[in-house]
Automatic annotation (TrEMBL):
GO terms for cellular component: cytosol. It comes from Anabaena sphaerica FACHB-251. GO terms for molecular function: DNA binding; DNA-binding transcription factor activity. Keywords: DNA-binding, Transcription, Transcription regulation. The keyword Transcription applies. The keyword Transcription regulation applies. InterPro entries: cNMP-bd_dom, cNMP-bd_dom_sf, Env_Response_Regulators, HTH_CRP, RmlC-like_jellyroll, WH-like_DNA-bd_sf, WH_DNA-bd_sf. It comes from the Bacteria. Residues 12-131 form the Cyclic nucleotide-binding domain. This is Crp/Fnr family transcriptional regulator.
Length: 227
């Protein structure tokens, strides 16, 4: 992968200097996982930072045999940084929703890089703060109608990971169970609302291509803001 492509793909690296990017590419290890495979188990947190080159994953909170999806991440995102920094045990794992390609950087190498490049350090703090704000927004929306909450989830996924195509912003066809858990509504509500949005022409569900197209982003965004 070229340095320019590496920088453009990951917002985290947009302000890193060329030497940092070159060093990262040299020390990163590439991994590929099929759909459904565990990418990261709870006992492995803290060993590395993971950069998502392609594909989609879900982060699950686990409690014994039970698990709940708490986040969905797509191309250009990263995870594992908090465990690297605080070294505390985790009760979450990461599962591939689609075929996934990752780059990993070991804990020791990543911390070295943060000390060498203040701009990268600052950029990572900015993105971590943004994640905290997104969590706060979800907490504020807990009493909102299910349709508003689901619209907010779809808008967020489209903003962060959507690919602009003629049909609209394309995101992965995320299983309704995972969408429901992330949005904190029932799977029955999720199924009903998704099909209603499809009928209204705001989204297009394409099971053949495993894609959801956000056709009318503005309408969906307006609905998401009614909390």
């Amino acid at each position: 992968m070229q340095i320019e492509v590496f920088s453009d793909l990951f917002p985290l690296l947009s302000t890193a200097n060329p030497q940092t990017l070159e060093w990262l590419l040299n020390v990163a290890v590439e991994h590929e996982y099929p759909s459904g495979r565990a990418v990261l188990m709870e006992d492995a947190w803290g060993n590395a930072v993971y950069f998502l080159v392609s594909g989609w994953v879900k982060v699950r909170r686990t409690n014994g045999d039970d698990s709940v999806t708490i986040a969905i991440l797509g191309r250009g995102d990263f995870f594992g940084e908090m465990a690297v920094l605080d070294e505390s045990p985790r009760s979450t794992d990461v599962i591939a929703l689609s075929p996934v390609k990752l780059l990993t950087v070991s804990r020791e190498r990543f911390i070295q890089i943060l000390f060498k490049d203040p701009q990268l350090h600052h950029r990572m703090l900015q993105l971590m703060v943004r994640r905290v704000r997104q969590i706060n927004m979800r907490l504020q929306m807990r009493s909102s109608p299910p349709a508003v909450k689901l619209a907010h989830t779809l808008v967020s996924l489209s903003d962060n990971y959507g690919q602009d195509l003629a049909q609209g912003k394309e995101i992965f066809y995320i299983p309704f169970k995972d969408l429901a858990e992330v949005t904190e509504i029932s799977i029955e509500e999720t199924t009903k609302i998704m099909h209603k949005l499809h009928e209204k022409g705001w989204i297009k569900l394409d099971t053949a291509k495993n894609s959801i197209y956000v056709v009318n982003f503005k309408q969906l965004e307006n609905l998401a803001n009614k909390f």
